[in-house]
Design a protein that fits this description.
InterPro entries: CLN6
Number of domains: 1
Structural class: mainly alpha
Radius of gyration: 33 Å
Strand order of the largest sheet: 1-2
Pfam families: CLN6
Keywords: Membrane, Transmembrane, Transmembrane helix
Distance between the termini: 90 Å
Order of helices and strands: EHHEHHHHHEHHEHHH
GO biological process, one term: ganglioside metabolic process
Number of helices: 12
Organism: Meleagris gallopavo
């Protein structure tokens, strides 16, 4: 119950304070004095029904509104399908398109087909991520999302330039399974400062570009994941369309983690998801269909990475390039080491 105190207008009570009488003991003077004191005291407050005040009106200083955890959203088949399709075509398919399409169509001193794929990816992916955030039933931190999107676009653009040059070097004999200085076409360059320039290019491609690209990417997915919980267990089921998309989505995340060399970032995101699921379960909340799709995709990705590592565990050449504790070879390094030699042998026959 709210109480509202209404004071009378000042002009109605002030005159009673300044009425002067020469005799302070006269009845009229006492009555005027009592009237003045009464005017100074606020009248008693009267209750106002709380139903008259809308709960949706924002409070002062822009306080956040209370979230309704009972709200759920259906499976976003259109967004997840477009997201998976463009990941496969524009990200995984760009180096393949660059190799398959005739070199006469895209000279080495011009952007390749893969570069145009990358440009389209840099525009479409942020748009789809923003649409995912918009469809979340929970109000998510917009400022963090916008900063992440801006950083994502900047990192992907840096990677576009470095990756374009590095993949064009394949036509000149560059071998991805070797380091920059160990490559035959690089180690004999004169002056030697040119080698430093190629190492800087590799750093922008594989380290700075990947970090500014993938950290915001996984952060946005995790922010979206925080809004994928519902108290209704009937909503915690995946439709057939989600099950069909889980395989291609998981396989792409496997390629993303292995080729991008971001296993630590991926595993920390996965652990954060598991911790959030267990925490929300104590509150009686379960994942909805969108959350299950994302969570199961990450689980299958971890299985695929484990199979990949076990398969190439005894490869001495790849072991030399990835000498650290975490041994996860890149698919393109495997291709240039084994598959390209196999194709060359077939062509010689």
């Amino acid at each position: 119950m709210l109480y509202l105190s209404v004071l009378p207008p000042p002009l109605l009570r002030v005159p009673a304070l300044y009425i002067h009488s020469t005799d302070p003991n006269s009845p009229s003077s006492k009555a005027q004095t009592l009237a003045g004191h009464a005017a100074l005291q606020p009248p008693p407050a009267f209750p106002i029904p709380t139903g008259l005040i809308s709960p949706s009106v924002p409070t002062r200083h822009g306080a956040a509104k209370n979230e309704d955890t009972s709200k759920t959203s259906p499976f976003h088949l259109d967004l997840w399908f477009y997201f998976t399709l463009q990941n496969w075509v524009l990200d995984f398919g760009r180096p393949i398109a660059m190799i398959i399409l005739p070199l006469e169509w895209f000279p080495l001193n011009k952007p390749s087909a893969g570069d145009y794929f990358h440009m389209a990816y840099n525009v479409i992916t942020p748009f789809l991520l923003l649409k995912l955030i918009e469809r979340s039933p929970k109000t998510l931190p917009r400022s963090m999302v916008y900063v992440s999107i801006i950083t994502f676009v900047m990192g992907a653009s840096i990677h576009l330039v470095g990756d374009s040059v590095n993949h064009r070097l394949i036509f000149s004999g560059y071998q991805h399974h070797l380091s920059v200085r160990e490559n035959p076409i690089i180690r004999n360059l004169k002056p030697e400062t040119l080698i430093d320039s190629f190492e800087l290019l590799y750093y922008y491609d594989e380290y700075l570009g990947h970090s500014m690209w993938y950290i915001p990417f996984f952060l946005i997915l995790f922010i979206y994941f925080t809004g994928c919980f519902t108290p209704d267990e009937d909503e915690s089921r995946m439709p057939v369309s989600a099950l069909l998309l889980t395989g291609p989505s998981s396989l792409y995340y496997w390629y993303l983690v292995t080729e991008g060399q971001i296993f630590i970032l991926y595993i920390f995101t996965f652990f954060a998801m598991m911790a959030l699921v267990m925490h929300q379960k104590r509150k009686g909340l379960v994942l909805d269909s969108n959350g299950l799709f994302l969570f199961y995709s990450f689980i299958i990705t971890l299985v695929l990475i484990a199979v990949w590592v076990v398969w190439l565990w005894n490869d001495k050449t790849l072991r030399k390039k990835y000498p650290g504790v975490i041994y996860i070879p890149e698919p393109w390094a495997f291709y240039t080491l084994h598959m390209s030699n196999l194709h060359a042998a077939k062509e010689s026959l």
